[in-house]
Design brief:
Strand order of the largest sheet of chain A: 2-3-1-4-5
Helix content of chain A: 40-55%
Strand content of chain A: 5-15%
Mean pLDDT of chain A: 91
Structural class of chain A: alpha/beta
Radius of gyration of chain A: 26 Å
Distance between the termini of chain A: 44 Å
Largest interface: A-B, 49 and 50 residues
Oligomer: homodimer
Low-confidence stretches of chain A: 242-247
Chain lengths: 493, 493
Amino acid sequence: MLEDIDFKRTVDPEEYRALIDALEIKVAELHRRTKDAGIPVIIVFEGWDASGKATMINRLLLAMDPRIFTVHPITAPTAEESARPWLWRFWTKTPSRGRIAIFDKSWYYRVMEERVDHLVDEERWMRAYGHINSFERNLVDDGNVLIKFFLHVTEEVQEKRLRKLRRRTTSAWRLIQQEWKHHKHYDDYLEAIEDMLEKTDTRPCTWHIVPSHDERTANVRIFETVIESLEKGISSSDAPVAGSRAAPTRGKKNGKPQQVLPRVDLSLTMDEEEYDRRLKACQEKLVELSNDVKLAQIPVSIMYSGWDAAGKGGNIKRLVQRLDPRSYKVIPIIVPTDEELAHHHLWRFWRELPPAGRIAIFDRSWYGRVLVERIEGYCREDEWRRAYHEINEMEQQWTDDGMVLIKFFLHIDKETQLERFRERENIPHKRWKITEDDWRNREKWGLYEEAIEDMLRFTDTKYAPWTIIESNSKMFSRIRTLEKITGDIERAL
Amino acid sequence: MLEDIDFKRTVDPEEYRALIDALEIKVAELHRRTKDAGIPVIIVFEGWDASGKATMINRLLLAMDPRIFTVHPITAPTAEESARPWLWRFWTKTPSRGRIAIFDKSWYYRVMEERVDHLVDEERWMRAYGHINSFERNLVDDGNVLIKFFLHVTEEVQEKRLRKLRRRTTSAWRLIQQEWKHHKHYDDYLEAIEDMLEKTDTRPCTWHIVPSHDERTANVRIFETVIESLEKGISSSDAPVAGSRAAPTRGKKNGKPQQVLPRVDLSLTMDEEEYDRRLKACQEKLVELSNDVKLAQIPVSIMYSGWDAAGKGGNIKRLVQRLDPRSYKVIPIIVPTDEELAHHHLWRFWRELPPAGRIAIFDRSWYGRVLVERIEGYCREDEWRRAYHEINEMEQQWTDDGMVLIKFFLHIDKETQLERFRERENIPHKRWKITEDDWRNREKWGLYEEAIEDMLRFTDTKYAPWTIIESNSKMFSRIRTLEKITGDIERAL
C-alpha cells in the first residue's frame, strides 16, 4: 500500500497558518461534541521512526482539551503486561464513553517491532493479526470511533532526520540508538509494514497513510482526517442501530435445535465417604498443582456460572480451601461500577485478569451479558447477540496465549432450587444469601432456560468448551469440578 | 515486644471445632455489616516465614464472602512500582468503602525484607517508619478499620517447619529457597522486627502479636481479634465525629494572620517581544530537560491551581507545546467517579501518578478538598481541616523519594476575571470555557479568598513550597511558570 503514496502534494507555507487555525477550531469543536454525545474515540499513530510522530501528535493535542484525552505511549511490554494475554495492556487502556485515547504506537507493536526484532516467534505474530482485527471490530461495534494513521517517510528521509537528531545533543544521541538499529533494517520493516497494512486494513478500520516528508502537509492531512472521522462518528451515533453482522439467530434448517439441559442427568449423586476421600485427594493435588502453575507461569482461569443456589460459592470454597492465598484470586462479578459501564462490556474482565501463575477464579462471568442483561433488557438485542461472537474471540485470544480456561455451568432443577431457597430462609446465618432478586429470577426460569441453551450452543468452542455439572447433589458437583480442574491443569503442565 | 509472648496457652482440640464454627458465623455476620455500613477494612498479616501465614489467612477467608474481600500478596516491587513513591503500590490497593483488603505481607516489607536484605539504604527504610505511621493514620482517620497481625514463631520452630516443607515435594523445595536464606539471618530479622513493632505500634494502629506454634490457637486468636475490631469499627461508625487531632485552627495569638494574596504585585507585565524570546528559550530548554529527566528517571510533578480564568490551560499549553507526548502526562482533575468517591480523598492522586521520568502535569489538584469541597460543603469541616496535614504528608512522601514537586497558584484580581469571562462569552469557539458554575464561583470570591489564604499558610512547607504567580498578564504568568520549572529541574539534575 505504500508504493502509491504521493509525496508531491504540499501545503503552501503562506496559506498554512490560516488553514491550520481553522482546522484547529473545527477539531476543538468536534471533540467536545463527541464528549457530549458519549462517543469514545481512539486515535492510533503508527509510522516509521523519525517520521515526526511526536511532533504531529503534539500538534493535534494542542487543539484538544486535556480533560478529554489521554495519551498512551507504547513501548516494550513490562513484566506485568507480559504475564497476561498480549492484548491485555491495550484492552485496559480503551477509553470510556466520551473520552479520547491517543496511542503513540499501539497494538501494532507486535507485528512491527516484536516481529522484526524477533521478540516473539512467527506463530504468535501471525496469530496477532486475527486478534487485532477482532479487537478493533469489538471497539467499533461498541460505538468507538477508531482512526488509524501510518506516517510514511522514505529510507533517505529517515536517514537524513536521524543524522540531524544525532547532531543536536548528547542526550538525544543516547535516546535514538534503537532508531538507528531499526534504520539499518529498513527493508525488513518495509516488508512487515506492507504486510500489516494489508492484513489490517478492514472496514471500517481502514488505515490513513500520511506522507510525512513535509510537516505542514502531514498536519493538515491529519487534522482533516480527524475532522472527517469525528463528523461521521457523531452523525452515525444518532442513526438507528443496524443489525450486527455477527448475530447468530435461533432456529436451524431442521427445526428446533437440540436442547442440552434436559439431557443432563441430575440424579447423579455421591455418598459421603467417597466424597471425603476424593475431596481430600483433589485438594492435596491442587496444592501441588498450584505450585507447579506458579513455577511454570501458566495462566489458569476457572469460571463458575449456574442457576442461583446451584452451589457456586460452596464449590469455590472447596477449591481454595487448602490453597495458599497468594496462588489464586477470586473475582466476584457483581453490579458494574459507572466506570465499568462506560466501557465495552468485556473491559472489566480483561482488567481483572491476574498475572500468569496466579489462578483466576471467576464467580459469575462475562456471560452475564447473554443471561441477565439479555433477560432484564440491560442491553439491546443487537448487543447481546453480538456478544456470543465477542466472547468467543476473547476466549480464543486467552487460550491462544496458553491459558487453561475452564468454564463450568452448574445445573440444578427447579425443585432443588426451591428447597435450597427455603433452607436459606430458615437458617439465620444463611439468610443473607437469599434476596428478592433471587425469587424474581426464579419466576423467569423459562426465559433463563432459553438464554442458557443459546449460550451453551453459541459459545461451546473447541478452544473453550463448556463443562456442565450435574449439581442436584452438592457433593457430586464439587468432586466433578475439582477433578475436572486437576485433570485439565495436569494436562497443561 | 516479642519476649513477653506466651506460647503456653493452647486451645483444646476437642473444643476447637465448636469454637471455631461459632467464631466463623460471627465473622461472617460482622463482615457483612461492615459492608452495609460502608466501612473499609484492612487486615495486615505479617510474620516470620513458616509461621503459617498462608494457612491462617485462608482459614479466615473461608468465613468471608469473596465478593467483599480482595487478597493482596506482596512481594518485591515490580519495575512499574519502583518507578513511583514507594507507598504508591499500597495506596492504590486500599479498599473502597464497604470492602475488605487483606494484605499477605504489606508496607512493612520495606522495614523487614528490604532492610535486612540491604535492598534499600538505611536512610530510606528509617524514613519509611514516618511514612507508614502517616499512611495508617490517614486511613484510620478516613474511617478504615485497620487490623495488624504479626505471627510469631521461635527460631527452632521455624527450622523444624522449613525442614518438613522441604521434604514434601521437589517443587516446594524450589519455592522455599528464600525462606531458608532468611532463616539463616533469624537474628537480623529479630532485630528489625522488634524495631518495627516498637516504632509502628501506634494508637489506634496497634499490633496484635499472635503466638503461632499451634495452628488452632492462632486461628482462634485471629478470629477473636477480627471480631472485636469489626465490632468496634461498626459501633464507632455510628458515633458522632470527633474533632481531628491534626486540625489547624484559624487565628493566632497576635490577631489575624498575615494575608498573602494582597501582597502579590498584579501589575507585573511583559512586552510581546521579550515574551516571544523568553518563551522560545524556555521551550527549547524544556525539550532538553525532558530528555534528561527521562534518562535520569527523575520523578517530576507540576501542579497548577488558581482562580477560574487565571490561565491554567494556556500555561499548560505553552509548557507541553514542544515536548514529546511520551515525556509528559496531563492529569486533569475533574468531578470524581463513584469509585474515587469510595476511597480516601487522596487515593485518586496517588493512582494517577505516572512513573519517574515522565513529567506529571496536574490541571487542578488535591487542594480541591480545602477549596471547592470546603466551600460547597462536599466534605465535613473536620475532613477538610485534617486535609492540610494529610496533603503535607503526601507531598513529603513524594519529595522524600526524590520528586521535583512544583506547586503553582495563579493569582488574578476580580476585575481581570470578569474581563476574561466576558471575552469567553463573546468569542464563539471560546464559549465552552465558561459555564454557570464559573459565575456561581465568582459570587463566592470572598470565601475562596479566605480558603486560599488558609491553604497557602498551612501547606507552604520546606519540601513543597508554593509559588504564587502574578497572572493578570498572561504573558508574564507563562514565562514565570516556565522559568521556575526549568530552574527547578536543572537544580535537581
